[in-house]
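Q: Hi! Curious about what Response regulator transcription factor looks like structurally. Here's the sequence.
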Amino acid sequence: MRIVIAEDDPLLREGVALLLRAEGLDVVATASTADEALAAIEAHEPDLALLDVRMPPTHTDEGIRAAVEARRRRPGLAVLVLSAYVEQSFATELLGGGVGGLGYLLKERVGRVEEFLDALRRVAGGGTAIDPEVVAQLFARSRQDPRLERLSPREREVLALMAEGLGNTAVAERLVVTEGAVHKHIRSIFAKLDLSPADRVDRRVAAVLRYLEGQRRPA
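A: Let's find out. The predicted structure is below.
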């Protein structure tokens, strides 16, 4: 796997590069600004770009804008974004396109090496990875949606893990239940959220979006 890393903190940038290389991954370039990151992506054509949200010169959303632009230029590029804070609008936007190969993690997750590497590989494989803390904060604000009130506590747990980007097998392992039980819970979630197979949408993505969309409502 070929990776470009964009992070303005030199210690974190080089630390992540060292970690990934130790895992046998090919870090083809590192960058400290969004412009450098886009240039490196153009030059090296990586499989995945690892981008900080806030980079020079304004330290606001340069990484987000670079991620959007990189995906525009290279539609198949996997992008994993790191942030020190929960950027709620971006977390929702991340899933809004209904496409895979995208992830959003808090920087503290890098220190949990196995979780970080699992998320990175999931995104590189075309999946989605949303930090559990981001999911927890958005879920706390989405309780105003009456559709979510129909869900049982276990169904809420399953939907929260789906929002993190976990597949059915991983959800079953996390909850210590059978995969068949997870299938049943997901079917029930779809029914209670009024998601029909006839809707011609990815019901899994639609369910997660309904879970997250409450963050746009006033608290």
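A: A fun detail: The two ends are 42 Å apart (CA to CA).
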